[in-house]
Amino acid sequence: MAQIISTEPSDLQIAAEVLGAGKLAALPTETVYGLAADATNGSAVAGIFSAKGRPHFNPLIAHMATLDMAERYVVFDDISRRLAAKFWPGPLTLVLPLREGAAIHPLVTAGLTTLAIRMPRGPIAEIIAALDRPLAAPSANSSGRISATSAQAVQDDLGAKLDLIVDGGACVVGLESTIVKIENGQAFLLRPGGLAAEEIEAFIGEPLHRLDQRAAIQAPGMMASHYAPDAAMRLNVSEVREGEALLAFGAQRASGADKAVAMLNLSPSGDLHEAAVHLFDYMKRLDAAGAKTIAVEPVPHNGLGEAINDRLSRAAAPRD
């Protein structure tokens, strides 16, 4: 199993040395734990795809320590630069044209001429700064499965395939980053996430355009089936069937809730931020209860609810 270390400066230096040597480490961010490798090292990036069982056509996010570092690898338009200045560090990923001669390995971009980048909060930023190289870091879980929001969740899933896990405690956002692409002066939402679309729209003064779900993959998190537990998922339920576990939300219960095999409430008060923080952890815990199906009560689609419902719909999608 992987060695688990702390976020003390001496341990972060160890993590930087491991990553600098081309090895893999799971690192905490404000969104979810990331499975990190040097984004300029093809062998290291290939290790991410191997450890996760991730399809090579699914691109990765490159994590930067500063805006100046990002400038080395991508070309910013005016709107993207404003978004970065406003929301970085934080749960926003921007998809931008690769700068000519950028040292990012092609595996990171999955052959695209663009690169998804963000500036994360927390210990990962210190590690990137120490390396002075970006880290490719998708969620630290097996491909298509529930994202990890704790060091133990990473250990349980991928511990045998990693060199190191930095334990930064539970993630404070709990959902992957929101992904935005500016094209021909228009803003497109490629993936809803931990930054509500309404905040972005209010800042740029225009709506975010949504892509058809059949659109070609341009960024991580766009595969139809993703974030899935072993159990089937049944969404927007008004009643709980025999033998089901229940993922609840708010104060009102679906009929038959008292007969659920297990029940966890994302937020008894109906707070969407609290629900986002709990989503992946509660999905894992209900999955471990052994029910064949997890019934999910309705969650509003406003604010962070858009991202929560996105993850739930992908978790419930037909699986290959």
Describe this protein's structure.
It is globular and about 60 Å long. The protein is α/β, with parallel strands linked by helices. The strands form two sheets. The chain has an eleven-stranded mixed β-sheet with strand order 1-8-2-3-7-4-6-5-9-10-11, with helices on both faces. A four-stranded parallel β-sheet has the order 12-15-13-14, with helices on one face. The protein has helices at 9-20, 42-52, 67-71, 78-87, 106-109, 123-131, 151-158, 197-204, 272-288, 305-316; strands spanning 3-5, 25-27, 34-38, 61-63, 92-97, 114-118, 135-136, 164-166, 178-183, 186-191, 209-210, 232-234, 245-248, 263-265, 293-296. The protein has ten helices and 15 strands. The chain folds into two domains: 3-210, DHBP synthase; 232-316, Rossmann fold (3-Layer(aba) Sandwich).
The order of strands across the largest sheet is 1-8-2-3-7-4-6-5-9-10-11
Q: What would the principal axes of the Cα set say about the shape?
A: globular
* Number of β-strand runs: 15
Listing every helix as H and every strand as E from the N terminus to the C terminus, the arrangement reads: EHEEHEHHEHEHEHEEEHEEEEHEH
Question: Helix amount, in percent?
Answer: 25-40%
| DSSP strand content | 15-25%
The largest β sheet comes out as: 11 strands, mixed
CATH hierarchy, class of the largest domain? Alpha Beta
Tally of contiguous helical segments: 10
Number of domains: 2
Query: Low-confidence stretches at least 5 residues in length (pLDDT < 50)?
Result: none
Assigned CATH architecture of the largest domain: Alpha-Beta Complex
End-to-end C-alpha gap: 29 Å
